[in-house]
Amino acid sequence: MNPKAISLEEKKLRPVVDHLNDLLANYHVHYQKLRGCHWNVRGSHFFTLHAKFEELYNNAITTIDELAERILTLGKSPLSRYQDYLETAEIKEIDTIGMSDVDLVKAVVEDLEVLIALQRDLLEITDEANDEGSNDMVNAFMQFNEKQNWMLRAFLNKQ
């Protein structure tokens, strides 16, 4: 698609697309980490966390698709190789096998903090580009992550 078809300037969209791809890469690593947390959680909080991690990875995969489709809407291509995700993402892989339930939650909280920071930066960039569509989408993602961060921090008894 041509950005002009949706009344946006291509020159202003380059930073938007670059940052959307950065967010996409981070979500892919986060998604796989959540799958590992879901599969490998053990302990007295198994039932609660198993369901929570599933909720979070289902949300992440939907977010991944929306990010990729938004990048395409803006006339560019989304990253699509795991190598690119791993090289681009601030969020890093972890081995969830054998981790305690609390440490799994801590790892997810750390990811959420990275995602929220990336989303806040992206909101400024989309605002500068007058890209209200991307701005609204990213704002909704951020609000979800802020709420999840609060709930998981409450689980950890952290303020």
Automatic annotation (TrEMBL):
Pfam families: Ferritin. Residues 18-158 form the Ferritin/DPS domain. SUPFAM superfamilies: Ferritin-like. Signal peptide: none annotated. It comes from the Bacteria. Belongs to the Dps family. This is Dps family protein. It comes from Olivibacter oleidegradans.
